From TrEMBL:
Record domain SLC26A/SulP transporter: where: 7-374
Entry's transmembrane regions: 12-31, 78-102, 114-136, 156-179, 191-213, 233-255, 276-298, 318-347, 368-393
Organism of this sequence: Streptomyces viridochromogenes (strain DSM 40736 / JCM 4977 / BCRC 1201 / Tue 494)
GO cellular component, one term: membrane
Annotated region described as Disordered, given as residue ranges: 471-496
Cell location: Membrane
Biological-process GO terms, alphabetical: transmembrane transport
Its membrane topology: Multi-pass membrane protein
Keyword set includes Membrane: yes
Domain of life where this protein originates: Bacteria
Protein name: Transmembrane transporter
Amino acid sequence: MTKFPYLKQDFLASIVVFLVAVPLCVGVAVASGVPAELGLITGIVGGLVTGLMRGSSLQVSGPAAGLTVLVFEAVSEFGVATLGVIVLLAGLLQLAMGFLGIGRWFRAISVSVVEGMLCGIGLVIIAGQIYAAAGLKAPESGLGKIAGLPGAFTDALGSTSALASLAIGAGTIAVIVLWKKLPKAVQTVPGALAAVVLATVATLAFSLPVATVQVEGLLGVIQPPGAEAFGELASPAIWGTVIAFALIASAESLFSAAAVDRLHDGPRTEYNKEMIAQGAGNTLCGLLGALPMTAVIVRSSANVNAGAKTKASRVLHGVWLLLFAAAMPWALALIPVPALAGILVHAGWKLIPFRQIIALWRAHKGEALILVVTAVSIVAVNMFEGVLIGLALSVVKTAWEASHVRLEIIDKGAGPIQAYLSGNATFLRLPKILDSLESLPQDRPVELDLKGLHHLDHACRTALESWAERHSATGTEPVKVTEPEQSVEAEKVTAS
């Protein structure tokens, strides 16, 4: 026992994580448009492969609700057979980023962009899974899903099977929400698992006309990518999907790692090694034709809260998933699809950062705007382009804030007008600077003091030269310029 001092704690934690993982693995797979077993395979790889590797010792990896939208789009466009190639290449890209030491740079991504990404994903998941809960086909686009909801509810009201299906989905959500209000002893069984079991029992007991999970068997769904799938790489569109998989999965995993580190006092995450572990897991998932994986905060927090001390708990959870998938595949066929939709609606709701949006709006309206625009862009366009829009806004905002410049004008009524520029003079603030200088009286001499500038870029320097020439062209004394400090890389601004 001295060799494994925490075996008991890790064993018990692994059982809890396994029970949390089963409905989520199956639900994410079904929502992604692939066989349910592929979600379990990704969970198994996340436990047995990624779980054994160094990086973040207590976070758990597997299929994530955050990638559901992206996977569904990829499967719709390229087919299930090509999914393995996409995941394989994304995994190799993650490995390369890990070995090149890029992992820690993901910590520099604006939190507003990440929160906006999760918010957008949450909205699309909720909208899409409401259709699944009613047994209806969802529109393909995010806007279409949301715009079509009133019509979907109208259609459901006229169908007995749709109403029964919606009742199972709504009941599942209600059980998950109310489960947390029950005694602690009852809560040792995860709410999502209890909801699925109760929904399954209700469906069987009342013979409800609702769809259940289609089962093909573990070995039957493993499809290593073939030559035809690799032939899809000739399409430029697939490379954008590969990059999106790699970047979004990496960002989710590393932000999850930072969150998990705040939950325990154990070893801190080694970000580049965690990136390598995620890349290794996704590479294997790609070879098996399974779903992509990320570190998942729900399973990771369950692991920590259950008392896990070492990586043994997450490895053991992978063992239990393997035994379940191999020995009890028949159990999957009993699970109602609307129950899984209910689980994902709840998961999508938790992805929407209501409190953060309110707090950001009070303290940093610009960051709140980035969050909202990123979320809306993901709903309106797609995940990859929505995140790029968010990142671009974040960069522009940072550049704008970094270019603070102050122009102070002193006019004593007689003699030259004195203009003092200080701060960072960049092209972003050029209109403001020129508007102020051009409003000065043309018949008065001007002294322009640039000593307070920390930075003067080429665009500003050229514009100031042109202004000085124009101001002096009317016969007024040439503009007198006091040069910036030597540390500022700026050429002399003069009037010819």
